[in-house]
Design goal:
The complex is a heterodimer of chains A (about 190) and B (about 325). Chain A is an all-alpha fold and about 190 residues long. In chain A, about 35% of the residues lie in helices and about 0% in strands. The chains are: A mainly alpha (about 190), B mainly beta (about 325). Chains A and B meet through helix 1, helix 2, helix 6 and strand 1 of A and strand 2, helix 4, strand 5, strand 6 and helix 5 of B.
Chain lengths: ~190, ~325
């Protein structure tokens, strides 16, 4: 109930009439599309395109392996990407994309956003799907011929999906008039475990 | 209280970009009524505020958790600094664009090579987050996000997105690499805390401290810094006998919420071996814990980013020679 009230109060307080400073300009839809690269766990933000691990293998060798190793084993300070499933709760955890990351969409988002390290943003959507498929295939999460696209990628279930818990430290004491805990915001909007 | 801008710690995941402020823009879009693009000139026209806040890397003092204590305060606790930040309250911008009913989170993104992105609950954004262009009376330094950065008071450094170029209002978090994997805290049972944004109360004695040497018995002033991501520091206690007895340190006024609070405590050294510790408390009643208490809760297994969000009590040993070392 309190969370519902929080949402209502936020909306009422801030919907306003908007733009009352009349400073700045309204972006065109193309301007927004050109910059909007965020991919959410439900797949929102994913573009059209497809790729398989088979298609990603050569791309990975060309664009990724020099840092992350031929089989995602990592090199030096460059992180290991594959393996380690089942070690998260053991003495020496091996935390990789395959063993630790809860969402496959995060892999896609990060590769497009930040990889390869020497030329981020240079991969086409099909290439990002293919490399994502190959990285997940290295941990046996998708098959070599399985096609990833904007519908199948969000449906990939990562082994450690249920491994995360919201911060449980005590919340700061709230002054009167503040409506909901700040630390987690509206915690129910954390993507559901399915 | 203020860290000189040129000495502010710096951390970046993909280098420091060179950005021309005359072409830099901030896009605000997503679940808003009126998407907006603001130039730096536009931002300078809007209502502004200056506030003093610390920024601390989530991994600051991680080696203390790990059991490799830093030999001096710079090594043990150097990834935290405190500045006066000037900019537009994010609440002002969000009110300007108008929030849609489903708006609950925002995703902030940098113009650096990796387009660093973090999700922040809207409630925090409306409470005290700044879209900052100024630091200590001058423009941001390039390493601090020039020309524009987010300042998220009291929260781990990584969410204070530098070189800010885009704010997307959304109904839920994006689960970017940094929040879904990197800045998470592995627990003993194999689960991991996520969205552990707040940097809890922490203090460290900076004098006498490691690598320093006392010039024989007599009067010394013990000095240090305390800070809390939850609000004001309300009390700092100092022990010279390894935590057996404590006495109150004086807090430097003004005590500012989510900012460095320098503390001082008079001490007459008798020339015998001593162990100096400081323990702070914030206005919520939270007390800085011992390392043992933290390890009992969190264990000693390294997470994806090593050990983040460690805030245990730090000890320095004063030897009878006057030499000060870590414990």
């Amino acid at each position: 109930m309190s969370r519902w009230l929080c949402g209502v109060a936020l909306t009422a307080a801030l919907a306003g009439d908007g733009l009352h400073f009349h400073v700045g300009r309204t972006p065109t839809p193309d301007e927004v599309r050109g910059q909007d690269i965020t991919v959410f766990p439900d797949g929102a933000g994913l573009p059209e395109g497809t790729g398989t691990a088979e298609q990603g293998r050569a791309l990975y060798q060309l664009r990724c392996a020099s840092c992350h190793g031929d089989h995602g084993e990592g090199r030096g300070d460059y992180p290991r990407l594959a393996g380690g499933q089942g070690t998260v709760s053991r003495g020496e955890p091996i935390l990789t994309v395959g063993s630790y990351w809860p969402y496959a969409t995060t892999v896609w988002d990060y590769i497009r956003r930040a990889m390869p390290y020497d030329n981020p943003g240079s991969l086409r959507s099909d290439e990002v799907y293919a490399i994502t498929a190959y990285v997940l295939h290295l941990s046996d999460i998708v098959g070599s011929k399985e096609t990833l696209n904007l519908r199948t990628l969000p449906a990939v279930r990562m082994p450690n999906r249920d491994g995360f818990i919201p911060d449980f430290r005590p919340l700061p004491q709230r002054r009167s008039g503040q409506l909901c805990p700040a630390t987690l915001g509206c915690a129910h909007t954390i993507p559901p475990r399915n | 209280m203020i860290t000189p801008s040129s000495l502010h710690f710096e951390r970046h995941h993909a280098g420091v970009p060179a950005i021309d402020p005359s072409s830099h823009e901030l896009l605000i879009h997503g679940l808003v009524e009126h998407p907006l693009i603001l130039s730096m000139k536009d931002l300078r026209r809007l209502p502004s505020i200056s506030r003093i806040h610390f920024i601390e890397c989530a991994g600051n003092s991680a080696r203390e958790h790990e059991g490799r204590p830093g030999p001096d305060p710079q090594t043990s606790h150097g990834l935290v600094s405190c500045s006066e930040w000037t900019g537009v309250p994010l609440a002002v911008l969000l009110q300007d664009v108008g929030l849609k009913p489903d708006a609950r989170w925002l995703v902030a993104e940098g113009a650096d090579a990796c387009h660093m992105a973090r999700s922040i609950p809207l409630q925090k954004a409306l409470e005290d987050v700044l879209v900052a262009y100024g630091q200590n009376g001058e423009a941001l330094r390039p390493e601090q996000g020039y020309p524009l950065r987010l300042v998220v008071p009291g929260w781990e450094g990584n969410v204070n997105i530098k070189w800010l170029r885009r704010i997307q209002v959304a109904s839920g978090p994006a689960m970017t690499r940094e929040e879904a994997a990197v800045y998470t805290d592995l627990m003993p049972d194999g689960t991991a805390r996520m969205f552990s944004f707040v940097m809890d109360a922490k203090s460290v004695i900076t004098r006498p401290a490691g690598w320093q040497r006392l010039d024989g018995p007599g009067f010394y002033e013990i000095e240090g810094l305390a800070w809390s991501g939850r609000g004001r520091i309300s009390r700092v206690e100092v022990s010279v006998d390894g935590g057996r007895t404590w006495r109150d340190a004086e807090l430097q006024e003004p005590v500012v919420s989510k900012a460095f609070t320098p503390f001082r405590c008079a001490w007459t050294w008798n020339g015998r071996e001593a162990e100096l510790q400081s323990r702070c408390r914030d206005e919520t009643g939270y007390v800085q814990p011992t390392r043992d208490a933290l390890i009992a809760m969190r264990g000693l297994r390294s997470g994806p980013d090593g050990f983040d969000h460690y805030n245990g009590i730090k000890a320095w040993r004063v030897r009878s020679s006057g030499e000060v070392t870590h414990v």
